[in-house]
Amino acid sequence: MEKSLFGFIWRYSARHQIYILLITVLTYPVVYFLLELPKLIVNDAVQGDGFPRIVFGFDFDQIPYLVLLCCIFLGLVVVSNGLKFYLNVYKGRLGESMLRRLRFELFQRVLRFRLPHFRKVSSGEIIPMITSEVEDVGGFIGEAFALPAYQGGMLLVQLGFIFMQDPLLGLAAVAAYPVQGYVIPMLQKKVIRLSRQRVKNIRVIADKVGESINGVAEIHANDAAAWHSADISDRLYENFKIRYEIFNRKFLIKFVNNFMNQLTPFFFYLIGGYLVIEGDLSMGALLAVIAAYKDLAGPWKELLSYYQMTADVGVKYQTVVENFDPIDIRETEQLTSDDAVVLDGDLTFENVSFSGGAAGQELLDVSLTVPAGTMSAVVGPDGSGRTELMQLAAGLVAPSSGKVKIGAHELDRLTDSTLGREIAYVGGAVHVWTGTIRDNLYYGLRHRPLTEPEREGEALKEYKRRVNEAKQTKNPLYDLEAEWEDLELAGVSDLSGLDYKALSLLEAVGLDNDIYRLGLQSRFDPSMNDEFAGEILRVRKTLAERIENEPALGGLVERWNLGTFNASASLAENLFFAVPSDPEITMDEVPELPEVKAFLADTGFDKELQNIGIKIAETMLELFSNVSGDSGLLGAYSFITQDELPEFDRIVRIAKSGQQRPGLTDADRTRLTALAFKLVPARHRLGVMTDDLRDDVIAARKKFLDTVVKSSESFVAFDPNVYLPPLTIEDNLLFGRARVDRRDARRRIDDVIRSIVEETGLRQAIIYAGGDYHVGVAGSKLSASQRRRIALVRGLLKNSKFTIIDDIATGMTEEDRALRASLKDVLSGKTYLYGTSNAEIASEFDHTVVLDQGRISEKG
Amino acid sequence: MSLETEVEALRKVPLFRGIHETKLRLLAFISDRTEYPSGERLCTQGEEGDCAFIILAGNADVLVDTPDGEKRVAQVSENSIVGEIAILCDVPRTATLVAASKMDVLTVSKDDFLKLLKEFPDISLEVMRTLALRLERTTRDLAEARQGAAGG
């Protein structure tokens, strides 16, 4: 990678830089004429005489001449600004694409780092380097050559003018330059050093903030917040100090420069005045020189700030780039090559040594043969070099001496395109990517884009542009929207085959039930898959029939029925007989929806609901006002939290007093309505649900369906023949509520649903729906065991001949045993290396290797 | 059915006789109101007990395991509390309860009842008094039974 900023700029944008320079030079005459023309207009057209003037062979009288000159002036204004606009856009674009090239290069280098290198660098440091630190480089690139050329040219022209008037004055004009040229870089050097310090300090801050976020539980668990605060605060002070120093120097440079610039006129007046008095120089020439000197200040200032910026950006570039050039960085080829070698044969270690840089991370002279198609256990406690051996076998790290081979191929020589496909590796510390479960399962098959999507019209044009830009900036041309799943590798012919295979593997690792449950709780968009929605509706019907025919079941559920009140559902659901289409809308927001507001006002329910709200609030206040907040009673049973009690106390007092002023605000009314909406009559037996109210609610829901639901998209009605997207799949199946006044109703109904789902073959489809479950940031919404199992399925789906599993399911529990047994089943006939610290397990495998302090102590 | 009727029923339970009405309302509110059709089990002997039942309406048979299968030893009816031993000390259910008719029951979970006791010490006192009375009566019964056995 280019060590210096200018090396980088010149290497990748020389052509563009020259072009910018040419256009810049082109602007010289335009600008010159633009400045000359007003003089001509005033002196010649307005004040001149002896018309007509002859221009290009035509005669012009005074007025037409004036018009002509003014039109030329207007034309030049347009041309000059147009050129400037064009140039600015061109420079900006060049800067952005160079920045893209730089950033991508940096990211690719991160991917090329060898694994042990990541012990030395942290993401908290790398991220700001690639994102914010190089940002300024982009703005600078467009100006890198054009600015000094342009402003330097200006400076030379003006200086030339002065020298032509009088060489002595010329010398006076440049007298201060050598001093400036010496002093300013001296000061700047210090600024550069400080800038480096600042960048590094900021990196440390970023890293510490990142670490605090990752370890936030530890911070609280150890009451270490004060320590971390002090640490960060200290760093911030350091930053302040450096910044302050930089300001001081920067403004000192400005000061020196300004001082020098204004010192020069001193010489002019002194030397020039002397020359005029002596009669060696005319008065007019002196004035012209002084005017020219004033014009020098502009370019000089620009050049100076350019110089400062060059120094600043150059330092930033260097401080970034030096971190991306470790000696042992892998070849780009190893990452990008598409050549895949088929690996076959025994896995052999020939006198392999490896050092991870710390004790307990090394292997010493290990020789070993794992015969093809066998299952071997590598036994060794943590720190015995087991993990290193497994990673060496997967080609993830390279030996410091010796060879790791599969068949005749040395792993270190192979590219990712071979290693990542032919070998499946699942280590103890698995990573689950942010995304859906399915994304994670098929991750191991996404090596290259396979079938590109068909594009036409606008989309095709846009795609071509994207490819073109990528080519120019040496970015990869891979198409993100293509199909990436390598079905052939997985040994299936189409996507549904892949789903089926994934499902069978999920069953093998015992994750199917978890995903089934997630699937039941998930929502899906019926427009994506009509058939599935139809299936769900059929099962809903079957379930309804069973509930009807079995009185024991019937007593556990209250299904949605337009003509009856559902005491196990909230008042809002009863009143609307519909749910908001957006499942994110909470009950507190429902009264604010314009449709709901209008409907409540229309039917007079607004007053009624507010009164119910007041009654509920009153009862809650009466029941809980003497209960202390930390007893936990309030949180679990009331729909009002401890913090809200005083607020509702105020609302109830105002409502009871009946005063018009200050009266209840709209927000208060909304709160009361929301409170009433949340009432589930069978659970909250507050006596507010009278028979009359029930009848009113049932009558009103018909009106709501006719007016709101029919005309607006924001609500979906409970219709037995329609799939309801805002509800979970489970709620769609049940189409009602488990009764809250029956013991274990929910669980018993769940059992019934499960058995019907299994009878009707819907289970697979629901597991499929569960595949769309979003796992949260880095799988945070999954348990550690679920994450490991997902990583296992990911590895197994690749169907590799070599599978290396380290430190997973190593216990003696029933569950771990079962998982090991099914892994053996799935991997029978393949080369399978299993790492564990538990020696008891070894007997389950064909061969065993025991590691102790980096050496093989036993083979069997 | 509202809190008021439940409070009325609670008041008739000897254990809660001396407790102030607002606290009974709170107790009623935090309890689950459940319905049992005839024949359904409220709890089974030997399992862990995590709640007490206050019968608002209907009857339940108390069954005990014997070598010959389950045997009915008693019946509990309206306004009685059963299973309260389980929520005061960690012992498995000593008997099985089966609804003999359609029942209306208030279920108080152990955690909530204990929280309530902590929150309102006068309830604890009342519970203690009732239990002490019961203990006194049991002791007397035992003494009488022993005397009877000795005399007979």
TrEMBL record, chain B:
First-listed, main subcellular location of the protein, grouped into a coarse class: membrane
Record's subcellular location: Membrane
Keywords: Ion channel, Ion transport, Ligand-gated ion channel, Membrane, Transmembrane, Transmembrane helix, Transport
Listed PROSITE patterns: CNMP_BINDING_2 (PS00889), CNMP_BINDING_3 (PS50042)
Recorded superkingdom: Bacteria
Residue ranges annotated for the Cyclic nucleotide-binding domain, each copy included: 15-134
Membrane-related topology note: Multi-pass membrane protein
Pfam families: cNMP_binding
CDD domains: CAP_ED
Name assigned to this protein: Cyclic nucleotide-binding domain-containing protein
Annotated source species: Roseibium denhamense
UniProt lineage: Bacteria, Pseudomonadati, Pseudomonadota, Alphaproteobacteria, Hyphomicrobiales
